[in-house]
Amino acid sequence: MILPPATLGMLGGGQLGRFFVSAAHEMGYKVWVLDPDPHSPAGLIADRHLVAGYDDFAALDKLSAGCSAVTTEFENVPAATLDYLAKFMPVHPSAAAVAVCQNRIAEKTFLADHGLPHGPFAAIRSDADVRDADAALFPAVLKVARFGYDGKGQARVANRDEALHAFHRFGGEVCVLEKMLALDCEVSVVLARDEGGAVRCFDPSENRHRHGILDVTIAPAPFDGSLVDQARSAAARIAEKLGYVGTLGVEFFVCDGELFVNEMAPRPHNSGHHTIDACVTSQYEQQVRALCGLPLGEPRAHSAAVMVNLLGELWYEGARADGAYREPDWATLHAVPNLRLHLYAKHHARPGRKMGHFTVIGRDAAQVLDAALGARAAIGISDDGH
Ligand code: ADP
Ligand code: MG
User: Among 215, 254, 286, 382, which is most buried by a count of CB atoms within 10 Å?
Assistant: First the structure.
């Protein structure tokens, strides 16, 4: 067991890393963050911020000299970086597990190999692959296999011509072509798994997206038990088959009452933010616990919760890119009972950028949803794309 006041290493300085730093600090640990951005949200509150690239081996040597174990909040850390650090200290999740999650083709192949349900897709490496793709895949979504997030590196394509055009627009990068599914809704499971293989799942949540970006999370997901049980057991099986240690997010599509795995995130997940305010143990504390070899905490929710993401457009008058830049109306949010606001201290808001979130908690799920959507509307987030 790695115990306080040990120093932990975090690869990546975004908001997920920032919440990890907070959880680790609460528990008495120190944290060093490695991230190339001198203003990174986690770097700002870390005990030390190594401002360096993930492939800067001199910086990795510094990190391993100063830390007892390393984890990540950023799925695009090169697997070689994790492998290198693992020579010197525990690294969780492993390079092998992260490698599966950071490439959409490896991810879908993994799902297929383990009999886990996923939507129809084709790997696209050349124009010929687009021409040969099954006609039943259209209309489809073309996604770059690596480095996409928040709907970036994705194009909705009605037919083969549009798919070819989008493939060229992505510079011929390796892609997957996924059948566009008619979604009843989206669900995610966040879980933690320890080195001994024990798994603790948070309650599955329902996730509502806008423009490919998570907008609202409702926890627990208001569905019938069997779907929720299937989601939990599929997520646990994924963690087991990956030999995963740490906090893992698994996204699902629900189509015609059937569950399909969309993708996995080898880190805490945006749809698990509410666990800070609504659960006995947060997803970030679980990440600390799994990394340090502590027993996993109790994931039970003590409250129903709704989380609302705050994206950069909210900083622009009228949510228009040419609108005046100003702070959103925080006072209105702070006046809402049982609402907690979390801001990530990013130095500049850009449309689509995740700047913060708030969570409303309470006993009655319907009231919590009303209050959260009411607060969301009151600060000027509308349903038609701001
Ligand atoms: P990201 O890495 O950006 O989260 P996702 O693959 O999860 O990428 O896509 C983002 C969102 O776009 C999904 O949550 C879903 O709302 C929508 N989407 C993605 N793929 C499909 C699909 N095959 N069918 C229908 N909707 C999709
Ligand atoms: Mg996603």
Answer: 286
Q: pLDDT tens digits, residue range 189-199?
A: 999 999 999 99
Residue nearest atom 15 in ligand 1 by C-alpha distance: 212
Kindly report the protein residue whose alpha carbon is nearest to atom 17 of ligand 1.
212
Strands (E) across the chain are located at 7-11, 30-34, 48-50, 69-72, 121-124, 140-144, 154-157, 175-179, 185-193, 199-201, 205-210, 213-219, 246-255, 258-265, 304-311, 339-343, 354-362
Q: How many angstroms separate the CA atoms of 289 and 195, rounded? A: 10
Residue nearest to atom 18 of ligand 1 (CA): 212
pLDDT at residue 134 greater than cutoff 70? yes
Global pTM exceeds 0.85: yes
Q: What is the pLDDT of residues 285-327, one digit of tens each?
A: 999 999 999 999 999 999 999 999 999 999 999 888 889 999 9
Average pLDDT (226-232) is 95
**Closest ligand 1 atom to the C-alpha of 149?**
3
CA dihedral 228, 229, 232, 238 (to 10 degrees): -120
Please tell me the predicted confidence (pLDDT) of residue 385. Answer: 46
Mutate to test the pocket of ligand 1, among 101, 152, 154 (most ligand atoms within 8 A of CB): 154
In angstroms, the CA 341 to CA 361 distance is 12
Say how many Å lie between the CA of residue 270 and the centre of ligand 2.
10
Ligand 1 nearest-atom number relative to CA 182: 25
Atom of ligand 1 nearest to the CA of 251: 7
